[in-house]
Amino acid sequence: MEHTSIEMKNIMHWKTEMVRFMMAYKFAVEEVNTKISILQQEFQHIHDYNPIEHVKTRVKSPESIFKKVQKKKLALNLSVIQENIRDIAGIRINCSFVSDIYRVADMLTEQKDITLIEKKDYIQNPKPNGYKSLHLIVQIPIFMSDRVENVYAEIQIRTIAMDFWASLEHKIYYKYNKSIPKALRDDLRDAAISANELDERMERIHKEVNQLKEADHLNGNEEKPVILPPEFLSLLADNQKKS
Fold first, then answer.
1. Cα–Cα distance measured from residue 140 to residue 55, given in angstroms and rounded to the nearest whole number
2. Helix 182-218 / helix 98-109 crossing angle, nearest 10 deg
3. Contact in structure between 25 and 58 (CB atoms under 8 Å)
4. Where are the alpha helices (DSSP H) in 46-127?
5. Most exposed among 23, 28, 188, 217, judged by the fewest C-beta atoms under 10 Å?
6. Can you tell me the distance from the alpha carbon of 126 to that of 144, in angstroms, rounded to the nearest whole number?
7. CA distance linking residue 58 with residue 29, whole number of Å
8. pLDDT tens, 196-241?
């Protein structure tokens, strides 16, 4: 009877630690997502351009984590898993242009509570199949009720064109169980080259538009800001007081 009681306590303890483990990654994703949302809103309201087009987040399921544990031949120990599987929390950021990718990466990794652990630049050094993206492994402190968990998260930053190609490439490989004919692999690489050419072309257009805007500014031809009359500002202030 005593042995059964001890066993139940061990099971309950393990269950509690597993819940904490998964929650820490959920909180890490939420923490990074909040930081990205702040940047998005700042650019939206203060600057005249927002480099962040779309954000997607996920936390690996316990089943997916277990598969990776088996693949890496790791011990079934939460500390070992936490240290060796660093993409349990995942954030994907889509940017408009390649230059925005590095800009957003710098803005995130320069924040005091984000520690950059590893950087893989598949934009400057694409994978053999044509895959391009900037991968960052970061560490974020999560303040729990009785401890601070330093949680790893993977941030992938890519353009819309890179993301479109990567999403379809993944679906094709999944359908063919990661073994497709060489002709199709060649077609995928060609598509990756086309996506890169589109990114380069759009970047050039973007720079030219910025140069035109700068020229308009120097010549005094830029659009004049709207000056709100005092009566309108008073009306807004009155409505805010009532609400």
1. 18
2. 80
3. no
4. 62-72, 78-84, 98-109
5. 217
6. 39
7. 7
8. 999 999 999 988 887 887 776 666 666 666 666 666 667 667 776 6
CB 128 within 8 A of CB 135: no
Sheet holding 52-59, edge to edge: 52-59, 89-95, 148-159, 134-143, 115-121
DSSP letter (8 states) at residue 199: H
Max Cα-Cα span within the chain: 88
Q: What is the pTM for the complete model shown? A: 0.81
Contacts of 138 (CB under 8 A, 6+ apart): 32, 108, 109, 114, 115, 116, 117, 152, 153, 154, 155
Strand partners, 156: 92, 135
What the block records as the tokens of 236 is 């807004």
| DSSP reduced 3-state for 169 | helix
pLDDT tens per residue, range 152-208: 999 999 999 999 999 988 888 776 666 778 888 889 899 999 999 999 999 999 888
How far is the C-alpha of 62 from the C-alpha of 69, rounded, in Å? 10
Q: How far is 98 from 196, CA to CA, in rounded Å?
A: 10
Give me the sign of the Cα torsion angle 174, 178, 179, 181: positive
